[in-house]
Amino acid sequence: MPVHTNFEDGVAVVTFDHPPVNGFGLAVRRGLVDAINASIEDTTVKAIVISGGGAMFSGGADITEFNTPRAEQAPNLHDVIAAIEASSKPVVMAINGTALGGGLEVAMAAHYRVAARDALLGLPEVKIGILPGAGGTQRLPRAVGLEAAVNMIVSGEPVPAAQLAGTRLLDQVIDGDVVAAAVDFAGTLDKDKLPLLRQLEVEHANAEAFLDFARNGVAAVAGAFPAPMKCLDAIEASFRKPFDEGMAVERAGFISLVSSTESKALRHAFFGERAASKIADVGKDVQPRAIKTVGIVGAGTMGGGIAMNFLNAGIPVTIVETRQDALERGLATIRGNYENSARKGKLKPGQVEQRMGLLTPSLSFDDLKEADLVIEAVFEELGVKESVFRQLDAIARPGAILASNTSTLDLDRIAAFTRRAEDVVGMHFFSPANVMKLLEVVRGAKTAKDVLATVLAIARTIRKTAVVSGVCDGFIGNRMIEQYGRQAGFLLDEGATPQQVDKAMENFGFAMGPFRMGDLAGNDIGWAIRKRRHVEKPEMIYSKSADLICEAGRFGQKVGKGWYDYRPGDRTAYASDEVAAILEANTRDLGLARRRISDEEIVQRLIFALANEGARILEEGIAAKASDIDIVYLTGYGFPLWRGGPMFHVDQVGLYNVLAAMRRFARGYQGASWEPAPLLVELAGQGKSFTG
Ligand code: NAD
Q: What is the domain extent for residue 140?
């Protein structure tokens, strides 16, 4: 039974249990209402204590009921709250641990609350693009005041009970056994005086000025998301209107938000991130290997950043280089990064040395003998990878996982350099590796299931979002971005400027358009890849513009000029006359007349090219599900979160419309690049979507 009642000295102690987070699923809701009604009828009961079993009070709604009719089936959350408020006997909530969302809303229905000092209380709904829809926006301001309520609801961040002591939200904040304290407290209560939060006034010394201030602040941070402002509207109603009218404002806000694209996108991202770590053929029975020590080969840009992830998690790292100077440079960069963080107050004094103390520099592969996981981040050349993996194979202990950070090379070929292909996996970090959330986990043909399970587990430890990709050139993310880059180049051929393309993509929501991005990453990297492609895949056609820019030495910010001009000490991208002249000459050489291209066409060509390649990636089984692709783009490529990722976005546009646009583009310049993926054609034909 998810809900059971014990009796102690005339107090009914109702406990609800629904692992993992005590979500208010239908059975819990029914059980609670029944237990409350039974306690009211039971003449031996003087008061009711309600607590969550296990370590937390409640994480709120049961997410397995999301988007199902069960979520609204009676008794729904409102009915549970009404039953508590209607109780003729005092109800005391014993908040033993986290009370979030619906968990806190239910707790606020009771007459009294007793909380553990370290319990976390919050209303995080704004993070999935909605607002607390079970009275949270009306009761919390009455409980903690206008300002604290705005802070909690608009940020969605939980607050420790200790910080809320002394407010009307918590009658007692205690150390020790919360349920025992709540039972003692309940025994002292007078049943003729039952305060409800809904009966209180919202307090604030200078509410009008504060609301004005809050409105400006929320508008500035909300960006494209409507939820923060709707939260504020509902909270404002708690101050201006009677409780029931405030509830109507909350309800209306909830309904408009829950069907908004932004909220759907956030929920898609929320569930997509959880789904990404579930691999169909790797069940819970697959035991991950223990990772206590990590080895890293190569202390360059990536090796150093990768090492920091493990040091931050308290895992010792041995880092191996070929030359002393390279090793020292790598170490100095890591130390420099930590010292920077310490200067900004992000690390406490002592933490720099503590983390550096976990790092062992070495010039010998022998020092990797004991490592449980070795990650290679040496030059991107198959010959160098071969030498490294042969050495690792010779020295690594049996069962050690051998990972490569390669961005483009064939992982199966790398695995074949060892006699233990089952222990080889790709761990494709993104630069800067200590900052970027995304980790593409590349599953080779022979990668063992427990190796995959281990890498997914360690990704959680180092706070990365892992997405599994099959082996192909560029894996999920870079393979798709190549098509995006190709279209950006073709647009230049036809007369668009880098500024126009970047602006259009930035207005769409990317932090940086493709050309500013190229200048940041270094245009020479793409140049080298294209040179290889011209040999390996001559059928893949690119605009010449990027090569012409590189031939002019315009490698990007690092040399002070790329698609844009840069001034010393200034990262602002200034339009370049030289680039304009190069591009105009290129268009002339191609025999094209420069045409005016709309921002809408720019966005469609770049995004539809991404999604079309994404469809092929799905077809080939490189990605297991469309949401995996979206998570790659949201966490690794700056795709605007409120648009949900490329696959989710084209679903919103409608695949029929996407296909029609692609067919139109196919009749234009470089139309051959618009061959639609069969999966896209199939889904569009059936009126289906990738993510729906
Ligand atoms: P880098 O040139 O900055 O660093 C490579 C380091 O490896 C150098 O310090 C070099 O001295 C060292 N090295 C070379 N051969 C070695 C050997 N045999 N043993 C030990 N050390 C050796 O390169 P990087 O940018 O850090 O890239 C490393 C790998 O990461 C490449 O496979 C690259 O494709 C991949 N990668 C790079 C990025 C990026 O943005 N830079 C992103 C993802 C993946």
A: 3-258
